[in-house]
Write a structure and sequence with these properties.
Elements: E1 2-5, H1 10-19, E2 27-31, E3 37-41, E4 49-53, H2 63-79, E5 84-88, H3 108-119, E6 123-127, E7 142-145, H4 148-159, H5 164-167, E8 170-174, H6 180-190, E9 193-201, E10 209-215, E11 226-234, H7 238-249, E12 254-262, H8 268-274, E13 278-284, H9 290-295, E14 299-302, H10 305-317
Length: 325
Amino acid sequence: MLIISGSSNISLANKVSSLLFTKPIDCNLYKFNCGETGIQINETVRGNDIVIIQSGYKSNLQVNDIVMETGLLIDACRRSSAKSITLIIPCYPYARQDRKDSSRSPISAAFIANMFEMAGLTRIVCMDLHSPQIQGFFRIPVDNLYSINMVHKKLIELYNIDKEEERDKYYLISPDAGAVKRTLKFANVMKMKMCLMHKERDYSKPGIVVKNILICEDASDFSGKTAIITDDMIDSGGTFIKACDTLIKKGFQDVIGVITHGYFTKDALNRVCEAVSVKKIIVSNSICQKENLEKCHKLELLDVSTQLAEAIRIICDGGSMSNLF
């Protein structure tokens, strides 16, 4: 088994490689003056199982450049007679464009799947996909890993939620209807109460949430309680902050965010730092967070490298992935 690191999350690739007692092979990833992506693998990959570790976003790279680089890496390995090619891409690009929701629009997530598959990909591993239906866009094996067990351990480490008297101080919050199933699973595993938020949008202004409505069977007083918003991603942070403000108005003392994929675009970090309602955001390193951790003291890193390394080991050994779900 040989590991190739894409340019979007080199630190994660190095961590995963270290856990597998190896290191990424020598590979040049570069740009021509015209903007074209260049690939040169400097070691033989013939007859080997290849694992490409990439992320769907990096602050100083264009997503389209990452997608193109990934496709070319797959093609280079296929043309070099690799035995198999597995892509570890915890943050899947174009994941929010997973349906045809207006006339004459593409299903971009499906297009990306077709492109990777046609390039020669034989297996893909993602984490907390924005929409599980993306798995159906592939004809090759797809493993959508969940962060729930790691999140549970992190919350026990930080807030002792394994103790009932401490656990009762927290409510899990689903930020919208799309996250309900995921939050229900979190609540079941962690034995915690949960609430649902409903977003009311102004469709004359795309992406704008007018207000959030809190729906909860338990109508008790939320004073002194902490809300834990669980979501797969945070982008510019506007919707997240608005949800936090709503929860504070409903009586919650403060809010913790548990986010798998932290894009933190535009002024998101400034918003988080300035928001009195936000106590902490636990975010994974599916996207490199090195610079963000230095800028915002409210961020707490959830390291997914151990789970990804275990997934690679299981795949290479031909074992079952069931323990990772």
